[in-house]
Amino acid sequence: MNDKIKILGLAGSLRNGSYNRAALHAAVKLCPDTASIEVFDLNGIPPFNQDQEDPLPQIVANLKEKIRSSDSILFATPEYNYSVPGILKNAIDYASRPYGDSAWEGKPAAIMGASIGMLGTARAQYHLRQIFVFLNMFALNRPEVMIPNAADKFDEEGNLTDTFTRDRIKELVEALVNWAIKHKKLLQQ
Ligand code: FNR
Prior knowledge:
By secondary structure, this protein is an alpha/beta fold. The protein has one domain (5-188): Rossmann fold. It is built from 5 helices and 6 strands; from the N terminus they run E-H-E-H-E-H-E-H-E-E-H. It has helices at residues 19-30, 58-68, 86-95, 122-135, 163-188; strands spanning 5-11, 35-40, 72-76, 108-114, 138-139, 145-147. Helix 1 (19-30) packs across helix 5 (163-188). The longest helix has 26 residues, at 163-188. The chain binds ligand FNR. The site of ligand FNR has 15 residues, from helix 1.
């Protein structure tokens, strides 16, 4: 298997100074040579409307194509009111439609998250794992990367300055690459 593992990175925040987007960009830099991470910006995904499933909005069709052509997905989710932000859930819902044509089917995935609070998105991450059950996505169990007190871990330009967090993100990306390779091999059997 010589092909690079393709990872699609999705951040659940549209904010310019988003810590989660910054964490995703840190993951891109920490990605091993055996893989690549492409970040898809969820800005512009319209609110889901079941009247607009056929045809899908072009940006949703693009997202679905990116998901399908990726070997795995890396989510960086904020925590909003103890759950995932609406923009992330909205994008997940849209890309799962129309019924029977979900782009998420069978995808290996990993989750990380950054929060200004002390639990580092733990509650949102477990909600996201629950969503994966119906989508039939295969969540990597470990390592769990929860980045608390995010304001202390990134500089003004969004560079990750915390060594401990950098090491955890590196471990996560490496584990996701191995997870995706295992799934690829299973599919080839
Ligand atoms: C938050 N925040 C937050 N933090 C947390 O740890 N638990 C929570 O339940 C919430 N709830 C919440 C709701 C809403 C509507 C907002 C806007 C914010 C704070 C959150 O961690 C903080 O805004 C992060 O900076 C969001 O991530 P990004 O945008 O920096 O990636």
